[in-house]
Design goal:
Layout (H helix, E strand, L loop, with lengths): L1 H8 L11 H14 L8 E2 L1 H8 L3 H13 L3 E4 L3 E4 L4 H25 L2 H19 L3 H18 L3 H21 L9 H12 L3 H17 L12 H4 L1 H8 L1
Antiparallel strand pairs: 1-3, 2-3
Helix pairs in contact: 2-4, 3-4, 5-7, 5-8, 5-10, 6-7, 6-9, 7-8, 9-10
Keywords: DNA-binding, Transcription, Transcription regulation
Protein name: Transcriptional regulator GntR family
GO molecular function, one term: DNA-binding transcription factor activity
Length: 245
């Protein structure tokens, strides 16, 4: 319980007016996953979370259910909830879905983004840059994900924003599991170039830049057949094959 407690408490914020108790729990756990303070396969004990947040287990269950609908938490019958741990094949599917989603979002962002939103995003990129410069990798990764969520807000399409929140969180899980180095975050220069294209209302350039950007993110992950596994049957598959022959 200690690891879970420190992981969640590190990101505790003041409750925002209008938030329900399960909103608060949801936001904190969501951020902890996005910042990789709760790594894949971490058990999310209802009892521990209820104690940490001072709420009932019913509230915790509601928050975990919301996270499970966004595919960042797995709820296992009779065994409780864990942070999701996508397989290699699932990771490939997630990134294909992200490609389709992000290209739709960037087109709409070019059409609808306001000057205020663009200015806000530029500050976000500066904060992201500062986080990585000071080796605060978790914060930098969260801000990188937040940048992509802000693009979805610019698109002015509520369903796309909902999908984007889920995809960004799932992508963070994939980075935690499959990154080849701590340089797997998005390029801040590419983020700035995307904002420039949006500000110029250049849809063709924005789409082209987003394609390259997504290719760079994907290239930094090891999603080939040599990825390490915590499945003993996978790790010792050669022994099983020899045993069967």
């Amino acid at each position: 319980m200690g690891n879970l407690k420190s992981s969640v408490n590190k990101g505790v914020k003041t409750k925002i007016a209008g938030q329900t108790q399960d909103d608060v729990v949801y936001c904190h756990v969501f951020d902890a996953i996005l910042e990789q303070r709760l790594p894949p396969a971490t058990k999310l004990s209802e009892e521990a979370l209820a104690e940490i947040f001072g709420v009932s287990r019913t509230i915790i269950r509601r928050a975990l259910l919301r996270l499970s609908l966004e595919k960042v938490v797995d709820i296992r019958p009779n065994r409780g909830a864990i942070v999701a741990a996508p397989s290699v094949e699932e990771a490939k599917q997630i990134f294909k879905a992200r490609e389709v989603l992000e290209l739709a979002i960037i087109e709409l962002a070019v059409e609808h983004a306001t000057s205020a939103q663009i200015t806000e995003c530029r500050q976000l990129v500066e904060d992201e840059d500062n986080a990585f410069a000071t080796n605060d990798y978790g914060k930098g990764l969260r801000l990188s994900g937040e940048f992509h969520i802000k693009l979805a807000e610019m698109a002015e399409n509520a369903p796309l924003l909902t999908f984007q929140r889920s995809i960004v969180s799932q992508s963070s899980l994939l980075i935690a599991m499959y990154e080849t180095s701590n340089n797997a975050h998005c390029s801040q220069d590419e983020h700035r170039e995307l904002l420039d294209a949006i500000e110029d209302r250049d849809k063709e350039k924005a789409v082209s830049l987003m394609k390259v950007h997504l290719e760079h993110i994907r290239a930094k992950l090891n999603l080939d057949d040599s990825v390490a596994s915590n499945d003993l049957h996978v790790v010792f598959s050669d022994v099983l094959k020899n045993k069967a022959s």
